[in-house]
Amino acid sequence: MALFSRTAKAAKNDTATAVQAGRDLKHLSGDYRVDPDHSEIGFAVRHAMVATVRGRFADFEGNLSLDGADPSRSSAELVIKVASIDTNQEQRDEHLRTSDFFDASTFEHIAFRSTSAERLGGDAYRMTGDLTIKDVTRPVTLDLAFNGHAKDPYGNDRVGFEGVTKVNRADWGLSYNAALEAGGVLIGEQVKLSFDISAVKEA
Fold first, then answer.
1. Are 155 and 188 in contact (CB under 8 A)?
2. What are the pLDDT digits (tens) for 46-60?
3. In angstroms, rounded to a whole number, what is the distance separating the alpha carbons of residues 112 and 187?
4. Torsion (CA) 53, 77, 60, 111 in degrees, nearest 10
5. What is the pTM of this model?
6. How deeply is 110 buried, as exposed, middle or buried, from its count of CB atoms within 10 A (0-12, 13-18, 19+)?
7. Residue 25's pLDDT is what?
8. Which residues pair with 91 in a beta bridge?
9. Can you list the alpha helix ranges (DSSP code H) found in the chain?
């Protein structure tokens, strides 16, 4: 019985170590191009204090540089076309493109450029970078999950990540709002940014 207990404990410790270490990603090191046709960049914000409006940006491009042996040396860049904003309501989308919000005619792009990356354990990662909206640049931190890798039917090596962060839109000058008769405001300040990225390894 004592031998069994020691063996079971050792197996449990081995499993915990494997979970902490996560998958071996050394063979995935390289440069990748974000595939916008199989990726999504979205956002969600409270509306009228009672509901959530969700939207996405349809037009974007980006690059990843992955170092599987040392994830802290990995990096990412993303450029989003502001005019491609889509909340499934055209009147609202047009308003978001005006100077009340993104001023898409003057500031055509939103950009993210990473400054650091770290592995938290298992398939969990964290990336910090500079987010630029309307010529205002501020740091943001993204919590990431590595979804895996595969070779698609066309022979492309793909990796997948998804992540989320929260930002205060007023920090980037997106401060438009309206008061409600019952109290509170029409649009929440906290915005949840989410993304689901599929990227193809460059030849």
1. no
2. 998 999 999 999 999
3. 24
4. 60
5. 0.85
6. buried
7. 79
8. none
9. 2-21, 90-97
